[in-house]
């Protein structure tokens, strides 16, 4: 199945479109950085900055969550201690009314 002239021209057009897209992508998403007299491209600088911000906010959120969880655990523990104290006080004061008679 040989290629026709039209197929070859179509392939060339698509190749130019791909190169144009890549060039546009590189100019939009890359930043040219001069290091040591040589031109270097730092790809996806915006993406890495956004990723770092997301990781930092994730760490902060985990820290806040851990602090909140610790406070909730302490509240539960103090609530249980208060409940046991109230039970003991109630049993001391009214325990004789609730003891079984047939012992």
Automatic annotation (TrEMBL):
Q: Which residues form a coiled coil?
A: 44-71
Q: What is this protein called?
A: Uncharacterized protein
Superkingdom of origin: Bacteria
Question: What are the entry keywords?
Answer: Coiled coil, Membrane, Transmembrane, Transmembrane helix
Q: Does the keyword Membrane apply?
A: yes
Q: Where are the transmembrane segments?
A: 20-44
Organism, as annotated: Streptococcus mitis
